[in-house]
C-alpha cells in the first residue's frame, strides 16, 4: 500500500484551501466595510434636507445606516425592522411618562425598567438594548421637546435604514455560496487525512510513535462548525437576493453532504477514542489484537480514499467499492478469529469495524449523488 505523506497536524495538507477561504471572507468584509462607509456618507449628506423637526437631528441618520448593514440582505432587513420596532416601543414608554406623569428619577427608572423587561423577551434581537437607551434619550435629551425629538429621531434613523438597505441591495449584495464548496472540500480532506494518519499508525511499529491523530480529533468538531456556519450563511444570503436568481445552487444537497460528514465525524472520533484506549488506556482501556492491525489499516485507508476522491473527476477505480471490499475483508477476518479469542480481545476491532460500516453507509448515497451528471 502506498503511504501518504502526512504530518502530525491533519490540517497541514489543506492550508491552501483554508487560505482561499480566508481570502474570500476578507474580500467580503472589505466590500461590506466600503458599502457601510458609503451608506453613512450618503445618509449624513441627505439628513439635513428632511422637512420639519428632523433636520435638527441629522446625526441619527448615519446610525440608521450602520444598523441596516448586515452581511446578508435578509439579515439587514430583519435588523432594520427590529431596530425600528425597538425605537417605537421606547418612544411609547417615554411618551407614557410624559403624558401620565412627569420625568423624574422614579418615573424614568420605571420606564427604563419596563424597557429592559420588554428587551429581555428577545423579540428585538441584538437591538433590544436600544429600548432602555432610547427611553433615556427621549426623556433626558428631548426634555420639554420630547415629542419633536422623538419624531426627528425616528425619521432620521428610518432615513439611514433606507439608505443602508438601498446601498446593500444595489452594490453587489452578498451571496456567500462560493465558500460552501471550499468548506465542504476542506472538511472532506481533514477527515480523509485524519483517517489516513490513523491507518499509517496501525501499519507502523506498535505502539505508534506519532500521536497527532490522537490529539487532533477535537479539530474535526471545530471544522464541522465552520462548515455548518458557511452553509447557513449561504442559505440566508440567497433570501431576497436578486443575484440568487442568476447564481442558483442546490443548498439542499449541501445540507445533506454536511449531515453525512458530521455523521462521519462522530464515528471517526469514536475510532480515535478506541485506538487511544488501545495505546494509552484512555478514555477506556481496550485490547487490540496485533494480527488484526494490518486489515484495520487497509480498511481505514480505503475509507480515507473515499473521502479524498469524493467529487474528483480523476478516478482510476471506484473508491466506494474498494472500501466496501476492505470492510468485507475485515469482517471476514473478525468472523474467522472469533472462536480463537475472547470477546474482550475482539471488542476494539469489532467496534472499529462497526464504525467503518456506518461511515460507508453515511457516505454511499452522497458519493453516488455527486457522481451523477
TrEMBL record:
Keywords: Cell membrane, Membrane, Transmembrane, Transmembrane helix
InterPro entries in the cross-refs: ArAE_1
Keyword NADP: no
Pfam families assigned: ArAE_1 (PF06081)
Bilayer disposition of the protein: Multi-pass membrane protein
Main location: membrane
Annotated TM spans: 30-51, 80-100, 106-126, 157-175
Protein's cellular compartments: Cell membrane
Highest taxon, organism lineage: Bacteria
Annotated PANTHER family: MULTIDRUG RESISTANCE PROTEIN MDTO, P-HYDROXYBENZOIC ACID EFFLUX PUMP SUBUNIT-RELATED
Protein name: FUSC family protein
Amino acid at each position: 500500500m502506498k503511504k501518504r505523506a502526512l504530518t502530525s497536524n491533519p490540517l497541514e495538507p489543506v492550508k491552501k484551501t483554508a487560505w482561499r477561504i480566508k481570502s474570500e471572507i476578507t474580500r467580503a468584509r472589505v466590500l461590506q466595510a466600503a458599502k457601510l462607509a458609503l451608506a453613512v456618507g450618503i445618509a449624513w449628506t441627505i439628513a439635513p434636507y428632511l422637512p420639519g423637526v428632523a433636520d435638527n437631528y441629522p446625526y441619527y441618520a448615519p446610525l440608521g445606516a450602520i444598523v441596516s448593514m448586515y452581511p446578508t440582505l435578509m439579515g439587514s432587513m430583519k435588523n432594520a425592522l427590529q431596530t425600528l420596532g425597538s425605537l417605537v416601543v421606547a418612544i411609547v414608554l417615554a411618551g407614557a411618562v410624559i403624558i401620565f406623569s412627569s420625568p423624574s428619577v422614579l418615573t424614568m427608572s420605571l420606564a427604563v425598567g419596563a424597557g429592559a423587561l420588554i428587551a429581555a423577551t428577545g423579540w428585538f434581537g441584538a437591538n433590544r438594548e436600544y429600548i432602555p437607551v432610547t427611553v433615556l434619550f427621549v426623556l433626558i435629551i428631548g426634555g420639554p421637546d420630547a415629542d419633536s425629538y422623538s419624531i426627528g429621531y425616528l425619521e432620521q434613523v428610518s432615513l439611514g435604514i433606507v439608505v443602508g438597505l438601498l446601498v446593500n441591495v444595489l452594490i453587489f449584495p452578498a451571496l456567500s455560496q462560493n465558500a460552501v464548496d471550499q468548506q465542504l472540500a476542506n472538511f472532506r480532506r481533514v477527515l480523509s487525512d485524519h483517517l489516513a494518519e490513523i491507518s499509517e499508525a496501525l501499519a507502523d511499529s506498535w505502539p505508534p510513535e506519532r500521536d497527532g491523530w490522537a490529539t487532533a480529533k477535537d479539530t474535526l468538531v471545530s471544522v464541522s462548525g465552520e462548515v455548518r456556519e458557511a452553509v447557513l450563511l449561504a442559505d440566508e444570503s440567497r433570501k431576497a437576493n436578486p443575484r440568487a436568481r442568476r447564481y442558483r445552487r442546490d443548498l439542499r444537497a449541501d445540507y445533506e453532504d454536511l449531515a453525512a460528514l458530521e455523521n462521519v465525524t462522530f464515528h471517526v472520533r469514536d475510532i480515535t477514542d478506541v485506538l487511544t484506549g488501545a495505546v494509552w488506556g484512555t478514555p477506556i482501556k481496550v485490547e487490540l489484537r496485533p494480527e488484526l492491525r494490518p486489515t484495520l489499516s487497509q480498511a481505514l485507508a480505503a475509507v480515507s480514499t473515499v473521502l479524498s476522491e469524493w467529487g474528483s473527476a480523476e478516478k482510476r477505480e471506484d473508491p466506494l467499492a474498494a472500501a466496501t471490499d476492505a470492510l468485507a475483508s475485515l469482517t471476514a477476518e473478525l468472523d474467522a478469529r472469533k472462536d480463537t479469542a475472547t470477546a474482550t480481545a475482539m471488542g476494539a476491532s469489532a467496534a472499529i469495524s462497526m464504525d467503518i460500516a456506518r461511515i460507508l453507509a453515511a457516505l454511499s448515497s452522497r458519493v453516488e449523488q455527486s457522481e451523477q451528471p
